[in-house]
Structure formats: structure tokens, C-alpha cells
From TrEMBL:
Pfam families registered for this protein in UniProt: Methyltransf_11
Domain of life where this protein originates: Bacteria
GO molecular function, one term: S-adenosylmethionine-dependent methyltransferase activity
Segments forming domain Methyltransferase type: 55-142
Keywords per UniProt: Methyltransferase, Transferase
Source organism (scientific name): Micromonospora saelicesensis
Record-given protein name: Methyltransferase domain-containing protein
Gene Ontology BP, a term: methylation
Length: 252
């Protein structure tokens, strides 16, 4: 089998694989990523155990929320990507959560001061004004977010050299939170090593994590994908670095 044929088989397999939900089990044995040191799921479980009404924004397939051992009396999640909505509803039955389909960048469809806890893991965009609005006085917002320049090595392997990142800086999140009337009580950063053992893992990741290469399709980027396949074959797993930050804020 030629290297090109091998690449095409791997690419075709990854292009046909489902990417619904927010689980990454398809990458088992093919890609790895370090976990942030703060243990987001554990922090969420701790906050949920002390909450009466909680909201998970951009829940994906509900994977993190479904693992909460002691959910609050009222537990709600939002999701904007239609394929994920039904996945999340099935996943979150076990914790009694309702899932609300929302429009991308639309307002949160809840009354003022509805929740004493709002959480969000890897939100597409945090609407700080809306978050502050739906929080009760004394309520908490806890979020693990994508940091500036995340997976930059992978983006540049497909797109070529890029200018310095201008978005997703933790300092910008702090300023936006404070401008919305929230008080930031915790901010942590982490750089996490990620590896991709074959080009199929790269393709599946780029299909799922859409901001890495905006507008990614296999046909559009077939040439750099083949180049990266040869690089992996000759040099071993491709290494990139994910940027994450944890931010916790309260409404006074």
C-alpha cells in the first residue's frame, strides 16, 4: 500500500466517523491530551452539591454534567448545535436535567436571577452580560475555557504561519466579567501537551473542534493533510499544545 493510499484510507475513515456530542472516545489510542491540573469535573461536582438551581451553558452532549454525583433540585443545560441537543437530552436523563435548544449568540432564555450557579466547559463564546443577568446575587459562574493560541501548531500545519492570537486571552475574560458587574475570584492557566499518532486523528479532531481550522473540510485542505501525514510517518506523532484557563466569578 502506498503512503498516499494509506493517507487516503485514514482520512476517509475519519471523515465518515460521527462527531456528535462532546466526547473524544474515537481518538482512543490515536491521540492524547494532558488534563488541566485543577480538575474541572471535580470542581463542578463540588459546586453542584451546594446549589439549588444550576445552569450548564454549551453543554455539548452533556458528558461532564452527567457525571455530577449530587445534582441540584433544578438543573438546566443549553446547547446551540442541533445534533448535540438530542444527545444531551439522552445523556442527562440520569441527573434529571432539562436541555434547552438555543440560537448561537442568542440571549439566555431565562428570567433574571434564575440560578445560583452557572457553569460552562469550553464555551464557544461567553456572554458575560447574560451570565450576570441570570445569576442570583451571591451566585457563581465557573468555566473552563479555551485559551489564546490553543493548538496553534496544528492550525499552522494546515494553514501556514498565523499572526499572534487576538482572542481568548484570560485577561480579556476578566475585563469582560468585571464590566458585566461580576467579581473574579479565581483565574488559572495551563499549557497542555497534545499528540496525534495518525492523520485520521487530525482530521476527526479538526471536524469536531471547529475553531482550530475555521471552515475545515477534507477536500479544501487535502494537500496539507497529506503533507502532515508524511511528517507523522517520518518523524512520529505530531505534537501541539492546548491552552486552557479556569475562571470563577461571583455576582455581588
Amino acid at each position: 500500500m502506498t503512503a498516499e493510499r494509506d493517507a487516503e484510507d485514514l482520512i476517509a475513515e475519519a471523515a465518515a466517523a460521527p462527531v456528535d456530542g462532546w466526547g473524544f472516545g474515537w481518538l482512543a489510542g490515536r491521540a492524547t491530551e494532558e488534563r488541566p491540573p485543577w480538575g474541572y469535573a471535580r470542581l463542578v461536582a463540588d459546586r453542584m452539591a451546594r446549589a439549588d438551581a444550576a445552569l450548564d451553558v454549551d453543554t455539548g452532549g452533556g458528558e461532564v454534567l452527567a457525571e455530577v454525583p449530587r445534582p441540584p433540585k433544578l438543573l438546566t443545560a443549553t446547547e446551540a448545535w442541533p445534533p448535540n441537543v438530542e444527545v444531551a437530552r439522552r445523556t442527562l436523563r440520569r441527573v434529571g436535567a432539562s436541555v434547552v435548544a438555543v440560537a448561537p449568540d442568542g440571549p439566555l432564555p431565562f428570567r433574571d436571577a434564575s440560578f445560583d450557579l452557572v457553569v460552562s466547559r469550553h464555551p464557544v463564546r461567553t456572554d458575560w452580560v447574560q451570565t450576570a443577568r441570570v445569576l442570583r446575587p451571591g451566585g457563581t459562574f465557573l468555566s473552563q475555557q479555551i485559551g489564546a493560541g490553543t493548538m496553534r501548531e496544528l492550525s499552522e500545519a494546515i494553514l501556514g504561519p498565523l499572526p499572534p492570537p487576538t482572542q481568548r486571552h484570560p485577561e480579556h475574560a476578566v475585563a469582560a466579567a468585571e464590566a458585566a458587574g461580576l467579581r473574579v475570584v479565581d483565574l488559572r492557566r495551563a499549557t497542555l501537551r497534545a499528540t496525534f499518532a495518525d492523520i485520521g486523528a487530525v482530521v476527526w479532531f479538526l471536524r469536531k473542534v471547529i475553531w482550530t481550522v475555521p471552515g475545515f473540510t477534507v477536500d479544501r485542505y487535502r494537500a496539507p493533510l497529506r503533507d502532515l501525514h508524511h511528517r507523522i510517518a517520518n518523524e512520529g506523532p505530531f505534537v501541539a499544545h492546548a491552552q486552557r484557563f479556569l475562571i470563577e466569578a461571583t455576582r455581588p
